[in-house]
Design brief:
Two copies of one chain form a homodimer. Chain A is α+β, with helices and mostly antiparallel strands. Chain A has two domains: about 260 residues, L-amino peptidase D-ALA esterase/amidase; about 120 residues, ArgJ beta chain, C-terminal domain (Ubiquitin-like (UB roll)), CATH 3.10.20. Chain A is about 30% helix and about 25% strand. Chain A has eleven helices and 15 strands. In chain A, strands 1, 2, 3, 4, 5, 6, 7 and 9 form an eight-stranded mixed beta sheet that branches. A seven-stranded mixed beta sheet of chain A has the order 8-15-10-14-11-12-13, with helices on both faces. In chain A, helix 2 links the parallel strand 3 and strand 4. Chain A is globular, with a radius of gyration of 22 Å. Chains A and B meet through helix 8, helix 9, strand 13 and helix 11 of A and helix 8, helix 9, strand 13 and helix 11 of B.
């Protein structure tokens, strides 16, 4: 047995709901091609709430945050949010003073077009770094985008926030909160550069829940800790990561303050959706062919387990061995030995799913080899590592390092 | 101008010297196929010194050192070294008690075959982790290996220590030390998993210099700091890294104690050879098509500059952009912003060779694009980063991340 198992993200409803279902009271959305991307594909999304929503946000910890992040971080504190404008194809990052002016200008234009103040608009951007936003194209596109706003427009908006994503990443769910039906739509973008603290990832959640702002912030933080902050594709944290939760209160439930039964009821649909979208981001990791859970048990502390899990997930040699379907546990041992002091190799056990590869620091025997190879052929499996040091545990999802990853990233700008 | 340049490793004599030249008084060497590797290629090397040599060593800091490393670390302290036995094809790592018995047994057998005590024999191993050494094959091969010992055998020994290496990695040089001719032969192995502290790398230097043991240790440490500890291929530190310097004193020079003119004369051939072998290791990085110097200037301290340089060299997104010949400086900025606190983006300048890509944190202008692309097409170039924080500087050599890297590492064991 590979030790205590972490709960695994479970499936939310199939990604392609009937459009009629992908509706949240009070919200309208639209997506279109504004000309930011060269190809004729959607690159601009707008979501509007009437009445204005309360908002909570988590943003990148990269020290060079995009002006879009800087502006949204300020605006989310203002409490009320009427609109969210998202562009793909351009990160508006490392664009200096001009980038900041552009982000503010986008908020002002959007506020003018949908009503309200510029502080009530949030913006997010994803794409190439260092190229100024083609602001004139966004300006020209805005009126048409506003005319296109529709309660059934969420899937179109979700389409417009994608960059190198192949998989759809949105979900819809309902739950009874103190007798009132509450609806949730979530959309995400992300297929590379994924690492702790939600690197290069956008995820937006829209609900008619009524909840005080501190509860929304807490929901987002708790949910992210179990989802977007437990995934790793290639280790760089981007300048643009943004996770937002907008709640307009139309469900008129008893306020879902932290730790109330209303809070927990809503969390029961929000957290699985966050885990599901996070899993799809890993599955869609640039060029990925496999989703691998790395579960570290019996570390001294959870923080130590986390450190080892990320060290293994960040090793190119470990990731290529997954791609090669090779139970090359020697690379796991070498990475563990390189990661930190104090480990006793003789206490280490390693399993691929339920098959032992290492027991007490040495090979579990060559007769396991064929069974290990079978596990490695699966599209997803769990590598469990027991360190024999204490009660600490942490698990994350990661992907393999493939030829397609190199192809995609060697030519992304061209 | 891209700021103050670090001295770059300069060429030592071409790798393929006439065999007659690759001789060091008192040393004999041999290499052969012992059956450790499946293919019929050399996998066992022996170098013997008569008289016994003084030895100094630097070993991996990986917490799970191979038993070969554990044994050699002890033996190198004993002061005298008669022989070095090196096998490729098997790392003798994560092999538990048996691995330790095997390493000691190899020393004992070798001592018996060449004369002397087992403490006077050093061993080193490289190859697959977790599989016990085929000790019986090594035992059977030893007598033939000893019979093959020859003053001109260094190149054959150098051939036998290689694994996935494509390039030859050895060099020979002479210098006058206080009127006496001193000779040096060096050989190295390494083409993947290269990172600070000489990960998965073997390098051995043999000389007839006369020098006290503390001076030998210092020569090795100073030389490694400017060579093997400034290279990065993929970031994992191996269980087996070993750098050794053996000096048998036959040149009969005045003892080259630290900081004497004799010491400096010998350093003038040792350090360039170490830099040259280190550069060849990067050039030979698994699947590498480019050697890139990353030079960080104007950091607060040298240690901070080093941290940023390794962070950039360790980013798969940065490394694939080199492979794609894409001056995608946004990835450098994102990685810097993700690396540490306190950086002011507006003070950052980035050059590819002498062409500016970023000035004051934003694009140096689209008219640089064509010139930048020309630089990226070179087989080697320098990325210079000025942080505008202080006097700290550090540079290292790294390689790109390529399709061949993935191919080689997805199938290494198979």
């Amino acid at each position: 047995m590979p030790g205590r198992r972490q709960p695994r993200p479970h499936r939310s409803p199939a990604p392609a709901e009937p459009a009629a279902l992908a509706v949240v009271p009070g919200f309208r959305a639209a997506g279109m091609h504004a000309g930011i991307k060269k190809q004729e594909i959607p690159d601009l999304a707008l979501i509007v709430s009437e009445p204005p929503a309360r908002a909570a946000g988590i943003f990148t910890r990269n020290r060079f945050p995009s002006p879009s992040v800087q502006v949204s971080r300020m605006h989310v504190r203002s409490g009320e949010c009427r609109a969210l404008l998202v562009n793909s194809g351009n990160a508006n990052a490392c664009t200096g003073e001009r980038g900041l002016r552009d982000a503010v200008e986008l908020c002002r234009r959007t506020a003018r077009a949908v009503g309200g103040r510029e502080q009530e608009v949030l913006v997010a951007s994803t794409g190439v770094i260092g190229v100024p936003l083609p602001i004139e194209r966004v300006r020209r596109a805005l009126p048409r985008l506003v005319r296109g706003l529709d309660p059934g427009g969420f899937p179109a908006a979700a389409e417009a926030i994608r960059t190198t994503d192949r998989l759809e990443k949105h979900g819809w769910a309902q739950v009874s909160v103190g007798g009132r039906q509450v609806t949730l739509f979530g959309m995400a973008k992300g297929a590379g550069m994924i690492c702790p603290n939600m690197a290069t990832m956008l995820a937006f959640f829209f609900t008619d829940l009524r909840a005080p702002a501190p509860a929304l912030r807490r929901l987002l933080r708790e949910g992210a800790a179990e989802s977007f902050n437990r995934i790793q594709v290639d280790g760089d944290q981007s300048t643009n990561d943004t996770v937002l939760l907008l709640a307009n209160g139309l469900a008129d439930n008893a306020p879902a303050a932290a730790e109330t039964s209303e809070y927990r009821a809503f969390a029961s649909i929000l957290f699985p959706m966050m885990r599901d979208l996070a899993t799809r981001i890993v599955r869609d990791g640039e060029g990925a062919t496999k989703v691998v859970e790395i579960a570290v048990h019996e570390a001294r502390t959870n923080a130590e387990a986390r450190l080892f899990a990320y060290r293994l997930a960040g090793s190119p040699l470990v990731k290529t061995s997954f791609y090669g379907q090779d139970p090359n546990w020697g690379r796991l041992m070498a990475a563990l030995g390189d990661a930190g002091p104090g480990l006793d190799p003789q206490k280490i056990d390693i399993f691929y799913d339920s098959i032992p590869a290492v027991l007490n620091g040495i090979s579990a025997g060559t007769r396991q080899e064929a069974r290990l190879r079978q596990v490695l052929r699966r599209e997803s499996f769990t590598v469990s590592i027991r360190l024999g040091r204490g009660p600490g545990a942490f698990s994350l999802l990661t992907s393999d390092l493939t030829h397609d990853y190199v192809s995609l990233n060697a030519s992304y700008r061209s």
